């Protein structure tokens, strides 16, 4: 239970936090494209 253990726990916590934030921002970045694609597939394709 030395400083190395504490650093490892802190590093793990921060890496998980960064991973979650990266996924969240990626989702926000990709969401308009996905919505557009879904809209296109749902409404444009039956008209063709």
Question: Please, could you describe this protein's structure?
Answer:
The chain crosses the membrane at residues 6-31. Keywords: Membrane, Transmembrane, Transmembrane helix. With 48 residues, the protein is mainly α. The protein has one domain (1-48). Helix content is 88%, strand content 0%. The chain has one helix and no strands. It has one helix at 3-44. The radius of gyration is 20 Å and the shape is rod-shaped. 0% of the residues are buried. The model has no long low-confidence stretch (mean pLDDT 83).
Intertermini distance: 66 Å
Number of helices: 1
Q: Which runs of at least 5 residues are low in confidence (pLDDT < 50)?
A: none
Number of domains: 1
Order of helices and strands: H
Helix content: over 70%
- The geometry reads as rod-shaped
Count of beta strands: 0
Largest sheet: none
Radius of gyration: 20 Å
Q: What's the overall average pLDDT, rounded?
A: 83
Structural class: mainly alpha
Percent in strands: under 5%
Transmembrane segments: 6-31
Keywords: Membrane, Transmembrane, Transmembrane helix
């Amino acid at each position: 239970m030395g400083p190395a253990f504490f650093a490892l726990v802190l590093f793990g916590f921060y890496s998980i936090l960064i991973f979650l934030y990266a996924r969240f921002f990626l989702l926000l970045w990709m969401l308009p494209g996905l919505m557009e694609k879904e809209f296109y597939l749902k409404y444009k394709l039956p008209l063709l």
